[in-house]
Write the structure tokens for this entry.
Amino acid sequence: MVSDQLLKQWIVANYAPYRIYPVVGDWLRIDLIHNAGGLFGFFQGTAVVFAVVTVAVVGLISWLQLRWGWRSWPITLALGLLLGGALGNFIDRIRFGYVVDFADIGIGTWRWYVFNIADMAVTCFFLLLIAIWLFAPRLLSGDDGGDEPATVPSDAGASSDAKGPVAE
């Protein structure tokens, strides 16, 4: 969230809106836009609605972290990415009434939507969530292998004089 806000502040101070600045040829460009909508620029003019939704999402993220996050660092990381991304864009919506987007990636006329660091964090959340779902689904089910504490077998602490099979 902090890096998102700092970079947005720098971009706004140094680049004119709606003008394209090549960074890495045509592949990566800065195209400062004011996104008054939601994801991928849909629902323009609904920044206030998305700000209210963000408050609910932050509450949900907090609940999920309390419920499952403490069990696993991948879940905590995923929820942290989602929280940072949501708060980064929330701050823009409150301050400006729109989200500052600037990163433009593509080749020629084949472009992705213009985005920012907060959007990348949310995207990484979804990618990490899919990876967890595919490779460690137990982290999402809340099943940590049972409620019983691990116990030491009764013969584990036995001395070498204990009776039992001995290899010769």
